[in-house]
Amino acid sequence: MARALNVETFQVGPLENNAYLVVDPDSSEAVLVDPGMGSEGVADVIRSRGLRLTAVVNTHAHFDHTYNNAHFLEAFGCPLLIHEAELDLLRDMSRHAEAFGFAGRTSPDPSRFLRDGDEIRVGGGALRVAHTPGHTPGGVCLMSEGQVITGDTLFAQSIGRTDLPGGDYDQLVQSIRTALYALPESTEVHPGHGPATLIGYEKRHNPFVKGPPSHVL
């Protein structure tokens, strides 16, 4: 059985993003998810604890989740992982940041593309990749035992916006129902913004997507 992983939350930047450090405590290997604006201090945490950063992972390529990709790749020499459908958005990150009034910044290209069903090893544990399009075409969620990092797919009593280029409301709802609401109700949800929640609570109370999982025929 895969080891349990620790998911540590860092709320960072002017848009109050959640960056996540996923750690295997037995091996001291770690993966950093969505290093947004203001996440530079997480590098000090990694160094002070003697962790070995094995990858940076983006749940999607909006600039507030990818702003510090280059900082961490240069500091730790690790690969960048993201879904292929996000590549154009990632390469356009600087323009999008400037459109929202922030300084432009670029990201290195990914080292490897993520696909639905992939596993990202973290020491003796793993994050399983679920492709959950809707907020963006290549959005992914990252699942481990009892936990899921949802990026901007699912929030506490909310969902990701779909009015930006590449967004699709019906597709997002389907992603939530098929990939997320099929998880055990006790699964802890770690979203891209805001507080953590539980799958069971969202199935009962999320005003945008309620009810049991649906299945694609």
DSSP helix count? 7
User: Mean pLDDT, rounded to whole units?
Assistant: 95
CA radius of gyration is 16 Å
CATH homologous superfamily annotation: Ribonuclease Z/Hydroxyacylglutathione hydrolase-like
The CATH class designation is Alpha Beta
Shape: globular
Q: How many domain units?
A: 1
Helix content: 10-25%
Poorly predicted residue ranges: none
CATH architecture: 4-Layer Sandwich
- Biggest sheet strand line-up: 1-2-3-4-5-6
Give the termini distance in whole angstroms.
Answer: 31 Å
Description:
By secondary structure, this protein is α/β, with parallel strands linked by helices. It has one domain: Metallo-beta-lactamase, Chain A, CATH 3.60.15.10. Helices cover 24% and strands 29% of the residues. The chain is built from 7 helices and 14 strands. The chain has helices at 41-48, 63-66, 69-76, 87-91, 93-99, 169-180, 199-205, and strands at 6-12, 17-24, 29-33, 52-57, 80-83, 112-114, 119-122, 125-131, 140-144, 147-151, 154-155, 158-159, 188-191, 197-198. The chain has a 6-stranded mixed β-sheet, covered by helices on one side. Strand 9 and strand 10 form a beta hairpin. The longest helix is centred in the C-terminal third of the chain and has 12 residues, at 169-180. It is globular. The two termini are 31 Å apart. The relative contact order is 0.15.
